[in-house]
Design goal:
By secondary structure, the chain is an alpha/beta fold. It folds into two domains: 3-276, TIM Barrel (Alpha-Beta Barrel); 296-368, no CATH class. 45% of the residues lie in helices and 14% in strands. It has helices at residues 29-41, 53-56, 58-69, 87-101, 117-125, 128-137, 155-159, 176-188, 203-206, 222-231, 246-254, 263-276, 296-308, 314-322, 337-341, 348-368; strands spanning 3-5, 12-14, 16-19, 46-48, 77-82, 106-114, 141-148, 166-170, 192-196, 238-242. Strands 3-4-5-6-7-8-9-10 form an eight-stranded parallel barrel, surrounded by five helices. A two-stranded antiparallel ribbon has the order 1-2. The radius of gyration is 21 Å and the shape is globular.
């Protein structure tokens, strides 16, 4: 395993982190804990979880594993979060997390899901930030970080307030233009930088042929390429991968053996992505709570097929991949809540119209044939 120092904290953390939101069977706590322990035994020492992950079982799974990890000499670090704006509510959630995780303190506690600058101001106004700082003074929190889906230019505005020691944000080989500014600002402040969704929400491995340009060396797999691209960034401390099982862990650990990319190789990839692929949905699903009940992310992710392969039939993907009818989009009131919350700031309503047009054209062509 390879390690980096997390910002100014002095903590040596594994550059491959355990993302605790994709356990194969969250209801089986013992099996989930075995998966966590397997990662720990392979040298992974940064474990990220949150209330609500995996049917609200992730913290319980981590806590069960931690009972065993405490018996070992190898250090480990736990990251969890709260998105509560109210200080008292955040404090209660923190105390619940401490109990569920079987720890006396959280190593890296995140002010979770800062989606916009107004959301950040709300956390300060309603007491969440004060509650976090107080808990740190009491020793319940060791280091304070924030998790964000804001555009890159907004992230430095939070960083410059000098409250946080680290940041967790979505970043991959196909969406880096959207968050690059935030990562560079964090690095300049010597903060820890943890990247989530390193595979673009599964878009990269699901479209290997289109993303073959990420492979610099003939022996690389697409997973190697996606992760080694990130490992090669000096600014990035940890790449978080959501592990389902032991096999996922073993596969990801093999990517650590590869040769890092040179600066000119990274720039070549970035130039290609900037030109062709910075408008893809990464299926983060933050748009899932549509007021009208529309499965927004399914439609927007379906639209990826148009950008990745212009000949792909949208109607087939909706029907066979998502079992979703295009008629669902008739319920849209154009409130644009989905666009406001979109981590990529995509033109979602325009994609709705594109999908409706494409499906109608496909239906018309099918009738003629």
């Amino acid at each position: 395993m390879k390690y980096k120092t997390y910002g100014k904290t002095g903590k040596k953390v594994s550059i491959l982190g355990f993302g605790g939101m994709r356990f194969e069977n969250p209801g089986d706590l013992d099996k989930g804990a075995e998966t966590v322990l397997h990662a720990y035994q392979q040298g992974i020492n940064y474990f990220d979880t949150a209330p609500g992950y995996c049917d609200d079982k992730s913290e319980d799974i981590m806590g069960l594993a931690i009972k065993e990890m405490k018996k070992q000499e190898q250090p480990f670090y736990i990251s969890t979060k709260s998105s509560k704006a109210d200080g008292d509510e955040l404090r209660k959630q923190l105390e619940d997390s401490l109990k569920r995780l079987n720890v006396d303190k959280i190593n890296f506690f995140h002010c979770w899901y800062l989606s916009s600058l107004p959301a950040w101001e709300e956390r300060k106004a309603k007491g969440a930030v004060a509650a976090i700082l107080k808990a740190k003074e009491e020793g319940l929190i060791e280091h304070i970080s924030f998790s964000t889906h804001m555009p890159g230019p907004d992230i430095p505005k939070v960083i410059k307030e000098d409250i946080f020691e680290g940041v967790t944000l979505g970043y991959s080989a196909i969406n880096f233009p959207f968050r690059q500014e935030g990562i560079l600002a964090a690095a300049e402040k010597n903060m820890g930088v943890v990247v989530m969704n390193p595979l673009g929400g599964g878009v990269i491995p699901a479209n290997e042929e289109r993303f073959n340009f990420l492979k610099i060396r003939p022996e690389q797999t697409i997973l190697d390429a996606a992760l080694q691209f990130l490992y090669s960034h000096d600014e990035i401390t940890i790449s978080l991968v959501g592990f389902r099982n032991k096999k996922d862990i073993d596969t990801a650990i093999k990517t650590l053996d590869g040769e890092l990319y040179q600066a000119e190789e990274i720039e070549k990839i970035k130039a290609k992505v900037t030109a062709d692929f910075d408008n893809l949905c990464t299926a983060c699903m933050y748009c899932k709570d549509c007021p009208e009940g529309i499965p927004v992310w399914k439609f927007v992710e379906t639209a990826n097929g148009f950008y990745l392969n212009g000949t792909q039939k949208m109607s087939d993907r909706l029907k066979y991949h998502f079992v979703t009818s295009i008629d669902e989009l008739d319920k849209c009131t154009e409130c644009r809540e989905c666009e406001d919350i979109c981590t990529q700031k995509l033109d979602i309503l325009e994609r709705f119209e594109m999908l409706k047009k494409r499906v109608a054209e496909e239906s018309k062509a099918s009738d003629k044939s």
